[in-house]
Amino acid sequence: MKKPHLKKSIKAFVEAAQIPEDFLKGNILVTMEGQERIIIENFKGISSYTEREIRLVANRRKICVAGEKLRINNFTKEEIEISGHICKLEYL
After folding, report:
1. What Rg do the C-alpha atoms of the chain give, in angstroms?
2. pLDDT (tens digit, 9 = 90+) per residue, 40-53?
3. Overall number of domains in the chain
């Protein structure tokens, strides 16, 4: 069991470091720009990649981006940027 003062210290650190609460909870953050571009943050890796489907692994789920002429524009430890004609985003 966490002590109240430790919980307050952790909360103060998170606020001071400006760490998004979604990131701490392990939530996946998705930003879409129309059907042409999607940015996904807070994932662990790529499980498969074709120009019709890109599957990602996250903390508690898998994500599938489906479409046509898909490609990965940018890939870092923090986020992935996918472009092409995006038809579907699915949480598996």
Report:
1. 16
2. 998 889 999 999 99
3. 1
**Which residues form the domain of 41?**
25-91
pTM for the full predicted model: 0.73
Cα 72 from Cα 11, distance rounded (Å): 35
57: in domain: yes
Closest to 58 in 3D by CA, of 66, 69, 73, 47: 47
In the numeric block, the tokens 């470091």 are attached to: 17
Whether 63 is in a domain gets the answer yes
DSSP 12: H
Q: Are 34 and 43 spatial neighbours (Cβ–Cβ below 8 Å)?
A: no
